[in-house]
Amino acid sequence: GQNIDQPTEMTATEGAIVQINCTYQTSGFNGLFWYQQHAGEAPTFLSYNVLDGLEEKGRFSSFLSRSKGYSYLLLKELQMKDSASYLCALSNDYKLSFGAGTTVTVRA
Amino acid sequence: NAGVTQTPKFRVLKTGQSMTLLCAQDMNHEYMYWYRQDPGMGLRLIHYSVGEGTTAKGEVPDGYNVSRLKKQNFLLGLESAAPSQTSVYFCASSYSTESEPPLGSTDTQYFGPGTRLTVL
Asked: Which residue of A31, A44, A100 is in closest CB contact with B105?
């Protein structure tokens, strides 16, 4: 199985930085995804890591360490529109296994 | 290019009734998926399909059936609805053999807007 753990909730202030951690226990996977999901909407792709290291996309960065079973999503210069759930998912044989998601609330 | 669409958006059923949820994609994707999303449990895979005419069970298949008669459509059926099937259902698709993936990798899944189902 693939136990994927994320914190349930996080709160941060507009303009700040938040780091969402994702830990997993699995025998193997192709890559690790992060999706963003606003309340009442569909999940949308944020980032993908297949190799260890940091992937940067504007205000969002994602890091993967396969040896440590660990990933994080870093959100910089937080904006109110970043209030959403962030889902960590592992891919294997074209299927995704999701964590329960982390709800981030950005306060003014 | 509509991406992934789902019908209906909302539905209320009584216990024991049946219904079919329709998913359509216009990206010529090979793979399609049905998930349910419940509070605190994340997205769980119900059934999936790796091509027209093929289906396979996911993590939580009991009480559901699927069919993929056409490449662009993936149907999810509930033969006898139960209150435990109250949930938000998402369809997703991935993997085109015709073009490089625009986002992430060939594993990247694109989701429909969801169907909110309540079973009384």
From this structure: A31
Q: For an interface test with B, which of A91, A102, A103 has the most B Cβ atoms less than 10 Å from its Cβ? A: A91
Contact B101, B37 (CB under 8 A): no
Query: pLDDT by residue for chain A (108 residues), tens digit each?
Result: 568 999 999 999 999 999 999 999 987 899 999 999 999 999 999 999 999 999 999 999 999 999 999 999 999 999 999 999 999 999 998 899 999 999 999 999
C-alpha neighbours within 13 Å on the C-beta side of residue B22: 8
Does the CB of B11 have a partner CB in chain A at under 8 Å?
no
Which tokens is A61 given? Answer: 């960065």
What secondary structure letter does DSSP report for A58?
A: T
Tell me whether A28 touches chain B (CB under 8 Å): no
Q: How far apart are CA A3 and CA A98, in angstroms?
A: 9
Query: How many degrees, rounded to 5, is the angle at CA A102 between CA A71 and CA A64?
Result: 5
User: Residue A84 and residue B15: Cα distance in Å, rounded?
Assistant: 33
DSSP secondary structure letters along A71-100:
EEEEE-S--GGG-EEEEEEEEETTEEEE--
E-strand stretches of chain B:
4-7, 10-13, 19-25, 31-38, 42-51, 54-57, 65-67, 73-78, 87-94, 110-111, 115-119
